[in-house]
Amino acid sequence: MRRLPLIRLFERQMSTLKKAKCPPAIINKLRNQCTYVLMIAEIEIIPNNHLAFIPVIPQVYLDIYGLMNLLKQKKHTGNTNLDPYKIINKDKCKKDPYFIYDVENGECMIDKSPAQAQKTIATGNRRYLTVDEAIALCLRTQVLKSHNIYCAGSRYKDEGVPVLCIQDNHPRLSWHYINDHGKNWGIPFCSW
Question: What is the pLDDT of residue 8?
Answer without folding.
Answer: 96
